[in-house]
Structure formats: C-alpha cells, structure tokens
Design goal:
By secondary structure, this protein is mainly β. The chain is about 15% helix and about 45% strand. It folds into three domains: about 270 residues, Porin (Beta Barrel); about 120 residues, no CATH class; about 210 residues, no CATH class.
Length: about 700
C-alpha cells in the first residue's frame, strides 16, 4: 500500500495547487489517458497531446501491474511522463517489483482538416526494459469519433506482425531485443528488434457530457510475464468507458479481452490557469491630465518611492527625461515600467515629449526604453490609444553603463548603504520515482531566503533550510556508498533539521551593453561552499545567448551543526552555456558542456517553458564520461529529470517571489551534478529581455 500512498503524495505536490487555485470549467469531450499515463485509448497510445502546460497525476491498474506517475505537456509538441510500474498480485497487496521509466511523446504533424495528428513515442526511453517500447501513432477525428492506428516496437509491438521496416536503415535496428532483460533501456535499444506489431482503436464521444466509449486492439503479448511466470494473458482487445466528471479529473474502467478489468484515475490541470502567483495589483497612481510648466526631478523620485517604485533621474533635456528603474525581479517588468512612466509624465515639463527608462535588476542594466509621452496620454486620458500603439512607437537602444547620474541623486545611489531587498519562501519537494526497490523517494523542505543589496551591484544573500520530512534513509539500504560523495550523501544533509542553505557575498556588473558579469563567494548552496562566477552575453532582441561559468567548490560537512563545516574535498567545475529562445514561444533550449562536480566531463540539454502567470516548467538530461549506479544495480552515464516552479505570492502573509518548487529526478547521484549557483545571470536578466517585454507588454497600462 505504500505505493498508493506515494502516489497520493505525488498528486498533492504536483496537481492539487493548480486544481484549487485555477479557474475551472465544465468537462469537455477531450482525449483521456491510456494504461501507461499518456493520452490514448484503453491499452494503446494515441497521437494526441494535452494543451501546452497541462500536468496530470495518474494511477491506472490492470493485472499484474499498477502504473502511477505524472505526465507533463512540456511544450505543444513534447510530452514527458515519469512512471512507476509496480507488480502486484492484487490492488491491496504490497508490490513485488518496481519497473520505473521515463516516457516521451513527440508530435510530428498537427491535425488539420485533411492531415491527422502524427506522433512518435518512446515508452521507457530510459528505465526498465520490461516496459520499454517505441511507437508511431496516427489519430484523426471525424465528428464524435476519434480514430487511432499505429505500429510499435519492443513490448508494445511484441505481437510481431511483420518484420521491422527500419532494418534497411542500418545495423542498429537489426539487433535482437530481449524484453525480459533486467538491464535498463537505453538509446541503443530504441526501435530495435526483428519484428513489430500494429495496433488500432476508436473513441466515441457520447451525447452525455464527459462520457466516451473506447475500444482498441493492442500488440502487447505479455512476453516477459509469460516467460517469468504462469501469467494467463488476455486476448488483445479491450472495451472501456471513460468519464470526465470535471475538467480536472478522469475516471475509467475497461474490460481487457473479457478476462481482465482495468481501472483508471487521473487528475490534471493547465498550469496557465494558475492564479495564486502574485498579489492583486494596487490601484495605479493618478495620471495628471495637464502638463506641468517645468520639470521637478525631486518629485519624480519621491512620488515613485511612495508607490514602491525605485526611480532615479539620470538625464534631462528640454525635450526628454531619462531615468533608471530598479525592478523587483519576481514581478513582471512592463507594469513596473508603466507606473514609472506615470510618475515621470506627472512631473515632466510641458516641452518633454520623450520618456526614457533604463530598467535594471541587482545592478544589471537593460536596454534603454524610449516611450513617446503623447502615446501614454492618448491611452490614459482620451482612451484613444492602447498598449499596442505605445509598443509600436517605442524605441529600444543599448544602455550606456557610464551614464552619469545627476549630482543631487549620486550620494543616495552610491552611498554603499545596505538596503533591504526581497524576502521569499520556497516549499521544495524533491521526488524520485526512478527507484527499483522503492515506490518513491521524497524530501520536503522549506527555505526562507533574504537578499540584501549593497550599493549598486553588491548582494548579501542568506537562506536557511528547514527539513520537514523525507524517506532518504532507504538510500543506505540498497545503494553503494561513495568514499567521496558528491550528492550521494543527501540523506545525511536531510537529517539536519535546520541548516544554512546559503550565505554569500555577490557582485553583479554590466561590462558592456548586453554583457553581464556575476561573482559570488561563501556558502553557495546546501552541499557546497566556495567561490566563482559567470559571464553572459545576451544581445537584446536576439534569440540566443552564450556564457561561461566556473566555481572552486568545497564540500560541506553534514555532520556539523548547521552544515557549517567543510569535509576537505575540493572540486573545480567549469562550463560553457548556450541558450536559444524558440521564436514565437516562451520556450528556451539550453546546452551546457564542461566539467561537473565529480570531475566528470560531459554535457547537458535542458528545455524550459515559462508561462505569463509565472509558472516555470523544465526537463533536462545530462550525459558524462563517468558512470554512476543506476536503479537496476548496474551503471549509467545519464542523469535526467523534471523541474516545476509555481509562484505562491498571492496569499496575504506570503511574500511576492515565493514558490512551490518540485524536482522529479533520481536522488543521491554523484555524476552529472552542477553547483546550484546563487546568481543565475540568464534568469536574472529575463525581465530585461526583449522576449519578456514583448510577452508582457499589455501590462504597461496596469
């Protein structure tokens, strides 16, 4: 039963916050999940995908397995499912074995009037070989009927209807495939095997709201189960009923071959509908309909300060007014820019037509934003303008880092006094479903973080961690202990109820327009102290960025109070980073290559998706030249996982910038590990980027 308990924990941490806070609507006739968690019919997958940003937790049972996990629609064409399959003799019995896996589905073609949905899928792309199989699925809807057909390899194609058609493409595809093996599935196994199988089915959406009937014919012949036990396999057909009681839930029951009963339960929610991110905006400052005779620089700053805006006049001419705006990094920048513009216009002279703002965050300067005053007046006074018209006439220019600050303001900005910055709370939930001997490993912590800015670019960062609950003691039961642990002694760190998460001094600087530098030293993260830095070139208005980072790290001692001591292990890590923003989306691809904390050499690929409500979703995979123990008692060169960040700043007593952070990845790995750097330049400069300004510009009038 602990497997079911773990699933409930997973549902709570991933989907319930979205369900409770999202604006929900009535159920619609939409595709539902299949046996292994991704969208499909009863026992077979389909080519269908959830709306971008949908997250689903599920538990599906069909003799002899109980499949549980979470499915995430990372981007419009990419779905990733983290699945734990438990072998059980009955729903009430304890699992005998676990067969975890990471499933991937990629859309190749999107359905139109004449073109079907076409997707390629990898079940247990990494994971246990018993559940592994690949497929190509085609789905086409006609009125209330949704048809699916396809071909499959591995377990899903074990009916062996025809020879593998990919054999003509090389020796890789001709290899024998033992689906009863205990070895993990790897890219070397994808689409291999002598034969493949065909599958197909139909879903009928009935006139009853949320009710559909599903029938399919699969190509899974349960070869592994018959080889290792006396399993009585059912015929390959199934007939089922699915009920979507609400937009956020699915309940299904099916008959497989007239011999087996399958039950399904899932909860899902679109992350875009999350409304618990930030507190309700205050009433914007009054906009003066009549222009002043002369400029009042002092009033610009004082009026803005009363509104919580840090604004400083840097330059003034007879026709223009230029100021620097210190952004709150946890909030969208266009609303902050819009309020700064109001204060500038309210105190500018009659002849001032150009309002220029240089946004900055933690001392890093963005591009100069030149807004025409008349456009703002048309939008706010006569109501004949709009945010789009303001955007159309706005100019962006590289900011000069040597811009002189007017004399009256210079002492206050550069005095070096400590000024309070943001206080944030993080609820950290680390989950590993990639374990063969445990249904789920978890760790729950609360991190309280407070940053203090020193002068213009200095940062004094502090954070404490409170470990609430975990079951990481199981790591000691079945995983070999490392003599020089990188992160494999995470259980020792979790044993300390209260510890210093970070305590460091940092410094940020804009070297040249679009070139940023960050240095930091001290207790950098929970497991490491040290010193290092990062440099980033992120050209404004471009879709790429490139940078480098390096840290000299000292391993912290978890057996000393607050983890303040050091164990004596010294490590040097260095990487080159490259970023690419997919045009027209909020999706970012990141590539990294270099030396990791175990002194292993390799690279990482990460894809992340930002949403306008502040939710962030990402997936990563790392491969290095050193092997680590995997979940099957063997070794692997891969390390992968999912990351989810949900802002929770709207409740009254929770500060802005606070988050629920969920990481689903194997815990206690030593290879492929990087420093959790306290200052991430790419994330820090996101609110300064052209992409962010364009996506959020409608908030300029808020």
């Amino acid at each position: 039963m602990h497997h079911i308990t773990a699933t409930i924990l997973l549902v709570s941490s991933l989907t319930l916050p979205c369900v409770l806070w999202a604006k929900t609507s009535a159920a619609e006739n939409t595709p539902s999940p299949a046996l292994f968690g991704a969208l499909g019919l009863n026992t077979i997958p389909s080519a269908r995908h959830d709306p971008e940003g949908t997250i689903r937790a599920f538990t599906h049972a069909a003799d002899p397995y109980l499949h549980s996990g979470v499915s995430i629609q990372l981007t419009e064409p990419i779905n990733i499912t983290l699945r734990q399959s438990a072998e059980v003799s009955s729903i009430n019995s304890s699992p005998e074995r676990f067969y975890p896996g990471v499933d991937l589905k990629l859309r190749l073609l999107k359905e139109t009037q004449y073109i079907p949905d076409v997707s390629i899928g990898l079940q247990s792309a990494t994971g246990h070989r018993r559940m592994a199989g690949e497929y190509v699925a085609i789905s086409k809807r006609y009125k209330d009927f949704d048809f699916t057909g396809g071909m499959a390899w591995g377990r899903l194609g074990s009916a062996a209807h025809v020879k593998n058609p990919f054999n003509i493409f090389g020796s890789h595809f001709k290899k024998d495939r033992d689906i009863t093996s205990e070895d993990p599935n790897t890219p070397e196994d994808w689409f291999t095997g002598k034969d493949i199988g065909f599958f197909g089915g139909i879903e009928y959406f009935t006139p009853l709201d949320g009710v559909s009937i599903k029938a399919d014919w699969g190509a899974d012949r349960y070869v592994a189960e018959q080889t290792t036990s006396d399993y009585n396999k059912p015929p390959p057909w199934s007939l089922g009923l699915n009920y979507q009681a609400a937009e956020w839930s699915n309940i299904g029951v099916s008959v497989i071959g007239g011999k087996k009963i399958m039950g399904q339960l899932s909860f899902q929610s679109p992350l875009q509908r999350w409304t618990g991110g930030q507190k309700t905006a205050t009433i914007p400052p009054y906009f003066n309909a009549h222009r002043n005779i002369r400029l009042s620089s002092a009033n610009v700053q004082s009026d803005a300060a009363k509104d919580g805006i840090q604004l400083a006049v840097e330059n003034e001419t007879s026709s223009g007014l230029h100021a620097s705006l210190t952004l709150q990094p946890s909030l969208s920048s266009p609303p902050q820019i819009g309020r700064a513009v109001r204060h500038m216009a309210n105190n500018a002279s009659t002849t001032t037509e150009a309002l220029s703002i240089t946004p900055q965050v933690y001392g890093l300067r963005g591009s100069q934003i030149n807004i025409i005053r008349r456009d703002v007046e048309d939008a706010l006074i006569t109501r004949q303008g709009s945010a789009q018209e303001i955007w159309y006439n706005t100019e962006f220019r590289p900011s000069d880092k040597n811009t002189k600050i007017s004399g009256s303001l210079l002492p206050e900005l550069a005095s070096g006094n400590f000024s309070s910055r943001s206080f944030r709370l993080y609820l950290d939930q680390d989950i590993s479903m990639s374990e063969e001997d445990s249904a789920l490993l978890y760790r729950t912590s609360i991190i309280a973080s407070k940053d203090v800015q020193i002068g213009k670019g200095g940062i004094f960062g502090n954070a404490v961690r409170i470990n609430l609950s975990d079951n990481l003691h199981r790591l000691r039961d079945y995983r070999p202990q490392s003599l020089l642990p990188v992160r494999s002694n995470i259980d020792d760190f979790a044993d300390e109820r209260l510890s210093i998460e970070r305590s460091y001094l940092g410094w940020t600087y804009t070297l040249q327009p679009d070139v940023y530098l960050a240095l930091s030293g001290g207790y950098l993260e929970e497991m490491y102290g040290g010193a290092g830095g990062e440099i980033l070139y992120r050209p404004f208005g471009r879709t790429y960025a490139i940078g480098a980072q390096s840290y000299l790290a000292f391993k912290r001692d978890p057996l000393q109070s607050l983890n303040l001591g050091f164990s004596g292990d010294t490590l040097l890590t260095a990487h080159i980073n490259a970023y690419y923003e997919i045009p027209g989306t909020q999706t970012t691809l990141k590539g990294q290559i270099g030396r990791y904390l175990a002194e292993d050499i390799g690279g990482s690929v990460e894809i992340s998706q930002n949403f306008n409500n502040g939710v962030r979703l990402g997936a990563f995979v790392t491969a290095t030249d050193q092997a680590d123990f995997d979940l099957f008692g063997s070794t692997t060169h891969l390390y992968s996982g999912l990351k989810l960040g949900i802002p929770i700043g709207s409740p009254r007593f929770i500060p802005d910038g606070s988050q629920i952070r969920v990481t689903a990845a194997q815990l206690g790995r030593d290879t492929g590990q990087s420093i959790d750097k306290p200052i991430d330049l790419y994330e820090l400069t996101e609110t300064l980027s052209y992409r962010h300004l364009a996506d959020q510009w409608s908030g300029i009038l808020d």
